[in-house]
Amino acid sequence: MAETTVKPWGETTIVGKPIPRVDGYERVSGGAVYPVDVILPNMLYGATLRCPHPHATVKKIVVGKAREMPGVRAVLTDADPEARVGWYEASGPPGPGGRRMLSRLFDPHCRYEGEEVAAVAAESPQQAWDAVRAIQVEYETQPFVTGMEEALKPGAPAVQEGGNLVGAPRETKRGDIAKGFAEADVVLEETYRSSCVIHAPMEVHGSVAQWDGDRLTVWDTNQGPFGIQSDIATALKMPLSNVRVISHYMGGGFGSKQEAGKYTVIAALLARKTARPVKLFLTREETFLCVGNRPAHIMKLKAGVKKDGTLTAFQLTGLGEVGAYPSDTSVGYQIGDLYTCPNVQIEESQAYINAGRNRAFRAPSFPQGNWALEQMMDALAEKIGMDPVELRLKNIPTVCQMQQNKPYTSTGLRECLTEGARAFGWKEARSRPKGDGPWLRGVGVASSIWMYQNAGNSTAIVKLFADGSVNLNIGAADLGTGTNTVMAMVVAEELGVPLDRIQIENADTGTTQYTDVSGGSKTVLADSPAVRLAALEVKARLLEMAAEQLKVPLSDLVFKDGAILAQGGARKLAITELRRLRGQMVVGVGRRGPDPTDKVVRPFSTDFAEVEVNTRTGEVRVLRMLAAHDSGRVMNLLTYRNQVFGGVVMGIGFAMTERRTMDSSTGKMVNANFHDYKIPTAKDAPGEMTCLPVDPHDTECNINGAKGIGEPATIAVGAAIANAFYHATGLRVTAAPITRAQVLTLLAERKTKG
Ligand code: MOS
Question: 709 pLDDT exceeds 60?
């Protein structure tokens, strides 16, 4: 099917509608088999011994006692030659030359509390854990650092050889920053901070590994089986074809499941050693230490603006806290491209500390950068006496300044701001009295841009059987966001087949087609065009069959609601009446075309928040939020809203409740559990949440017109809340999260200053 002949949808009957997940019943009834549910005959259970110290060298390990324990079938340490596999601890593209190997699987040099030291396989999880406790390890502890500023002081303990700075600072520049500040009527400077937020998907991380000769099958909870396949093959030096990774269902990833874990490779090695399948899933407490986080940032931002609202300069000096191993984190993008600004200078550094490293986390680095930029915009607006919505409208970008000023395929930021403000009742809310206390009310706004990822070359296969039922075959993992439902809707739209007659095969490197990881908010835009092209190919074959059967020219036929109409509808042929289809099936293969090269695809958003602050207790409540999003075409209004509401609640976690707390005297994380680490619950969600999609009818981003929502949904939430807090109180909370203690301190400081 030539993609160039495919027109955007006009009126749709299924795409765009609020349709419940096709696998909703399985998911909520317990019928769906997630990797964590997989039980194989003869299966053993793995458990991992982790370093209890923030920084230590393993001097000696004695495993004799553990090996003798009941039910124990294998103990694996760095002394076992098969465990001497290199390991990467850096994100990057999977495969040769991609992720860097930086440590051993059980590195004797442990750089954070929770680093892997040894592993056990036993007949039951209890026996495995008993054996882990029976392993005797002699550690030589070393000095450690738990914060990035401390890590960069002269004489600080080095986390990695070569010091605690991760490489040289990265610089981005455009225009003339000095000229920009000289032209400004108002220049403001502020230092913003954000805390480390821990990955906590519902399904904990883990794998089940099974060998069949030299072929390995792994059920792994992940966001993209092909990346995991590549990670395993690289670590174990195996051909990709011998590694099969399956993840039909998975219980949330948010970026933390884009790569294989050490647990994946450990499970495979234990399974090989014992010649039995091994299941190794982490405990919730383990996941707090070692499956990644959204790193803390310190962002010094200086900005210049003219009295009329024209931005003249942004200068950012940023520092990100990556943990014990290098990883990418860059907050500058948000500052470089959300608004038109001719003079920008960004310098970013990263520091090691003795703690678990970051992994991609729902819009990696964007909420942090947005926290700084959008509070700064709020402050600039106040200084020049302009409404914050107006200031943003004044600086809407028309081209992508970070990419050679190429135009965007669509820019819905203006509509997000104007339609959002109208629907939220911004003007009225902004001028409403704030109250006499102790509860004060305020409203705030923040916008965002998301960096659309290269969508790659997804392939999809649609098979239509003689009874009119369909098998849809796609490589992508559905993270729980409902992408499988969207794909089925595309088939249903094109073929008129009811959704319950479409069976989906997905996320299996052995049986499905290659697609890139479900990350970067790109699953729908990467794969749904391929699905549509596959369905269109099936449709074309069916029309050919009908033309032959009815002995009419192809041009006389139209396809409607799963049937072929001839002679203006006078004759109708159902799919099941096609004689040539009996005893066979029709197969359509769709391959997604490339992304546009002369234009840039970006989603935009604007969040509006109303908060209430108690000036006696420091309590902050988010009363309502309105999220206006330009995501291109909304493919399924119901799952789209789910993404937006989930993103808002996650943003509340970043802004108000979540923080990894390290004890600087022991180097340990003191809140590595759901009791002390506060994930927002339903009771923390705003009483009112509104999702307002703004569809710019993007016909250039891809043939389906969707630009993505998963990550944009959370980026600007925190800053909108902080700005509403400022509106209510006149106090700037520069550090996330806005804890009650911090609010009370700010209130007390103001009182003292008089
Ligand atoms: Mo995402 S942080 O690209 O899974």
Answer: yes
